[in-house]
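Researcher: Next entry in the queue.
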Amino acid sequence: MKYPVKGMAITTVILSHLSGSTIVGIFAGRWLDSVTQTSPLFLIIGLFIGLAAGVYGTIKLANQYLGDDTS
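Model: Structure for this entry, 71 residues:
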């Protein structure tokens, strides 16, 4: 790789997309569960929404990095 720092930056952004959105989804789900008294329902929904948002952000970033701006 010609610029190793750029590769590390891309890896860091991908990791933050995946982990950050998942953590936000989990905490939002736990908060909604505590408000509505439904124990694991919104936690699971928040987890899946967070994972989906992280994957979407990662795919969008990869397309931008690879030069494929079709979306």
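Model: The chain has a mean pLDDT of 88.
Researcher: Noted, moving on.
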